[in-house]
Design goal:
heterodimer; A: 525 residues; Nucleotidyltransferase, domain 5; B: 74 residues; mainly beta; two-stranded antiparallel sheet; 1 helix; 19% strand
């Protein structure tokens, strides 16, 4: 089965249009850990994997981790501390020189912290945001190129806030040297960014690496990097540390190759694969940005994620956050916790309060699952080929609770008779600024959700409502305050009825644009 | 000669500091890094290439300082 896919790729099958995706046979992995069965028979797993979909020991590790569990990301928050400024490789999508308040992308921070400052920040944030359960060190360089700062931070946090899960994100070059140390610090989640397994492809992504006191270039550099990444992954698997693989999808360079990467990392025990769109604009000053390398469209990204999903769990809720991000995914509260502010804060780290709060969150979370289940029963026995996307404005908690004009992003769900599946999110400009809608911003939003049939909101004004209708997107505010997935299933049932009765005709939607700009506290303020 | 760090280019990432075999690199008050020319040996006798140049993420940031004579290995 794998060779079928290989051949298809080698034949240069165009995957962008999406129409050919179905021709490529998918192998349902022998064990994806999925047990749910939808009406159409396809297990709904991937990033949406829930309690019943995973082996218990893995569920226990990921259930409160917003970056490892799509379901958890509605309820739990994470933070990154920027203690690791140095890097040991250069990537063509990264420019270390540039930082400004108006952007949010990996590798960028406003200030770097010492391990002591970082530990204080973690305690301050964890006290203010009791659902903050995860601390990650992700840069802005490579955490394992700054091992002393990284491990000192983990040591301090583990001592003062033992309930917080620790994780680390690395390019993998130094990983084999530190796997044992990671195990020793009880770090049970590691993310490795792997963009290629073919050094020829790698040479187009990495101009150089610094390894064993020497700078290597081109194919030679990429070969070393790839070997070290895969070796590191195997070592983590041997030690029972969960690995997530991040891959940046770069159209024309590694987009088709990522199917091979997916197989390679799966076979070495990676738990989750996160394929992210390239963020590339000239003003970022990156090699790709300056040379006009484009990022993928929403449908190109989804098609690739769908194609890899037969092989292993896919993550689709990644916000490609900054190395100093704070809060729920999709929000950035880092501006509330600058070094000056945290150093002045009186921190009272109260484990019991945090536990009580998290118990309440668990209740809320259970309610979301129950609501979905009960509505899903109503779909049993329904069969239809119709699949559609809907966009949702939410502030979290699994509910439709955000005003259309206040949404900084929309979450996108795919609806079918198999149920609902979270397939991604779309960042948008703030449409409503100071009470005045701007037509240009509305056009931006429509482009961002142009592949959706409907948008679910808590509230929406008359003008945008009409414009959305004109663009063929149904603005839906009748589920305000209700659970997302339960409402989506109800909407879909209603939609199917209307199609059956001939009241409406189902038409396919077009592609959508992935916004290259950003979501930041500065913008949101 | 010794190496120097071009202040306008330095991002303060600290990658060079631990790589220097002579402990010639230190952090300044404003979070950037400087090379002490009295300690710099251009990595001669240690490595094939100057380590600060090899690890620095920004091109043309660790450069030869023409104000100092060429380093002579003892």
């Amino acid at each position: 089965m794998q060779t079928v896919q290989h051949r298809a790729r080698a034949d240069g099958v165009e995957t962008h249009a999406g129409a050919n995706i179905d021709e490529i046979m998918q192998k349902v992995a022998e064990h994806k850990g999925c047990g749910t069965s939808g009406g159409a028979g396809k297990a709904s797993c991937g990033s949406g994997a829930g309690e019943n979909d995973l082996p218990p020991e893995i569920w226990e590790k990921v259930k409160n981790h917003p970056c490892y569990s799509e379901e958890a990301h509605h309820h739990y928050a994470r933070m990154h501390v920027a203690v690791a400024p140095a890097c040991n490789i250069q990537c063509n999508y990264c420019n270390r020189k540039y930082d400004c308040a108006n952007e949010s992308r990996p590798g960028v921070v406003s200030e770097k912290l010492t391990p002591e400052q970082a530990a204080k920040k973690v305690l301050a944030v964890a006290s203010a945001i009791p659902q903050m359960t995860v601390l990650g060190i992700a840069g802005p360089g490579d955490p394992l190129a700054n091992p002393e700062k990284t491990f000192k931070t983990f040591e301090l946090v583990a001592k003062h806030a033992p309930d917080i899960k620790l994780c680390v994100s690395t390019n993998g070059l130094a990983l084999p040297d530190y796997v044992d140390r990671l195990a020793q610090y009880n770090i049970d989640h590691v993310t490795i960014t792997i963009n290629m397994i073919d050094p020829e492809v790698g040479a187009k992504i990495y101009p150089w690496i610094y390894y064993k006191k020497k700078r290597y270039h081109g194919v030679e550099a990429a070969k070393i990097l790839s070997e070290r990444q895969l070796q590191g992954l195997e070592m983590l698997t041997e030690r029972g540390i969960l690995s997530k693989i991040n891959s940046v999808m770069i159209p024309g360079i590694n987009d088709e190759h990522l199917v091979e990467v997916n197989k390679a990392v799966k076979s070495r025990g990676a738990f989750l694969h996160n394929i992210m769109p390239l963020i590339s604009a000239p003003e970022h000053g990156t090699y790709f940005g300056l040379n006009g390398q484009r990022g993928p469209t929403a449908q190109e990204l989804k098609a690739l994620q769908d194609k890899c999903e037969g092989e292993m769990n896919m993550m689709r809720h990644c916000r490609q956050c900054r190395a100093d991000a704070v809060g729920l995914l999709g929000e950035d509260r880092s501006a509330e916790f600058t070094t000056d502010k945290i150093m002045e804060m009186e921190v009272n780290y109260d484990l019991e309060t945090r536990k009580a709060y998290q118990a309440a969150v668990e209740k809320e979370r259970q309610a979301v699952v129950e609501a979905k289940k009960s509505e899903l029963d109503g779909l049993a026995g329904e069969h239809s080929d119709i699949k559609m996307l809907v966009a949702v404005a939410t502030k979290g908690g699994g509910k439709i609770n955000e005003h259309f004009g206040h949404a900084k992003e929309f979450q996108v769900y795919e609806l079918s008779t198999a149920g609902t599946k979270f397939v991604g999110h779309r960042r948008v400009d703030l449409y409503c600024q100071g009470g005045y809608g701007e037509e240009d911003s509305l056009a931006t939003i429509i482009r961002a959700i142009n592949d959706c049939h409907a948008v679910f909101v808590a509230k929406i004004g008359g003008c945008p409502k009409n414009d959305l209708k004109a663009a063929g997107i149904d603005p839906v505010d009748r589920y305000a305050g209700q659970f997302i997935e339960q409402s989506a299933i109800a909407y879909f049932k209603d939609y199917l009825e209307k199609v059956k009765s001939g009241e409406i005709r189902h038409v396919e939607r077009g592609d959508a644009h992935i916004r290259q700009g950003a979501l930041t506290a500065a913008e949101a303020a | 000669m010794a190496y120097k760090i071009v202040k306008d280019n330095c991002t303060g990432c600290s990658a060079c500091e631990p790589e220097c075999p002579n402990q010639a690199i230190s952090e300044t008050k404003d979070g950037l890094f400087v090379i002490d020319p009295a300690k710099c040996t251009e990595c001669i006798g240690f490595y094939d290439e100057p380590q600060c140049v090899a690890v620095c993420p920004i091109d043309d940031t660790c450069i030869i300082d023409e104000n100092y004579p060429r380093y002579q290995a003892a």
